[in-house]
Amino acid sequence: MKPTVVLHGYEAVKEALIELGEDFVERRSFPIIDKVNRGLRIVFSNGNIWKDTRRFTLMTLRNFGMGKRSIESRIQEEAHYLVEELRATRGSPCDPTFILGCAPCNVICSIIFHNRFDYNNQDFLALARRINENVKLLSSPWMQVYNSFPALIDYLPGSHKIIIENTNFLRSYFVKEIKEHEESLDVNDPRDLIDCFLIEMKKANNAETAFTYENLVITISDLFGAGTETTSSTLRYALLLLMKHPEVAGMAKDESCESPESAWKMFLASLILGLGRRPLMLYPSSSPRATGNARTSRQGSAHEGMVPQRSADSVAMREEERRGARADMGTTILVSLTSVLHDDKEFPRPETFDPGHFLDDSGKFKKSNYFVPFSTGKRNCAGEALARMELFLFLTSILQNFNLKSVVDPKKLDTTPVANGFVSVLPSFQVSFVPV
């Protein structure tokens, strides 16, 4: 019931989020999130709390290896556990949702808690289940109704109550971890993100500081959820696409197929970096199959398989009149990332899976400014470098060790999301991981 402006297309989005980034940096109100977070956290907070929390998070992620070889080794280790868990299915059909969620969740756990969990750990299972449930509920039609009429519906039963219950469960676990960290904290040797935050809390002498106990709990919740569900969803989407296009997978395994014209069809060949060897994120050309056009086709397929995991919305910070639309201060600005990612001028067949969208006429990878699945500007995803590394290494490890077999005719596989709200929720599917 409030004035809203929707930004559609690359030029409009670029102008708002990059050229006028400071004027569109505030987040609008999101009732269900506001209710459980009270204006804190990194994603939906504003002002100095958001700036300080984001700055701290980026710095800490980098210090603990985001984008570096140190975190790459950790992800490779987790990829090994992931492969072993998939191997335990013995090629039987399974829903990969939970297993694929465990791997990125454990990477986040190692950064936040300095610890990883066995995939059958009961605490871990409970955390993963509640995160997955919350993401689905946040994208349901009921949440759209709730966010439109929170004052009325807040007193009624419904799935919003489940979200609050799950959130409280997660935070009670995080509080327990924080207390254990407080008891063993060494300010001269921080082990993880919690230690770093506790050290900043000791330094803080400002009543309006972002470094409070409550904000630590909520920031952990943000990182835990965002660092788990979005990456696992993209991994599942990639597997779904690979099963739906078996002819491409077949050609990709044919090492004799190396012509530039068919480079885009070889994207799996550049992912399968030699059986029995762990993939290296920083040195993909070390593989004999990841050279020339095969290497660039891998990049093309990785870009084509990525899906936007969030919509971007902000609030105008001053009066603006652009492109024939006037936005007064406080106007909600909705940014359609889909309009950029599906622009048919940049991507001739936007509704079709085609890694060729990211290859030039000679089969070499070409960068596109329209590729913004992590958004862009000052509110872009803080964990983009980590997510990119995880997606490459986890997917590569799976394809090194297994052939993917659909339990239904690949042509009948539906990749259409079953819900579009907070995120896009993919349909459930069964896959057999057949050892190579």
Automatic annotation (TrEMBL):
GO annotations under biological process?
Answer: organic acid metabolic process; xenobiotic metabolic process
Q: Give a yes or no for keyword Transcription regulation in this entry.
A: no
Q: Which cofactor does it need?
A: heme
Q: Which PROSITE patterns match?
A: CYTOCHROME_P450
Localisation: Endoplasmic reticulum membrane; Microsome membrane
- Output the superkingdom of the source species: Eukaryota
The EC number(s) given in the record are 1.14.14.1
Q: InterPro entries from the entry?
A: Cyt_P450, Cyt_P450_CS, Cyt_P450_E_grp-I, Cyt_P450_sf, Cytochrome_P450_fam2
Residue positions annotated to bind heme are 381
One GO cellular component term: endoplasmic reticulum membrane
The entry assigns this protein to a family as follows: Belongs to the cytochrome P450 family.
As for membrane topology, the entry says: Peripheral membrane protein
Task: State where composition is biased (Polar residues).
Answer: 285-300
- Alphabetical keyword list: Endoplasmic reticulum, Heme, Iron, Membrane, Metal-binding, Microsome, Monooxygenase, Oxidoreductase
> Protein name, please?
unspecific monooxygenase
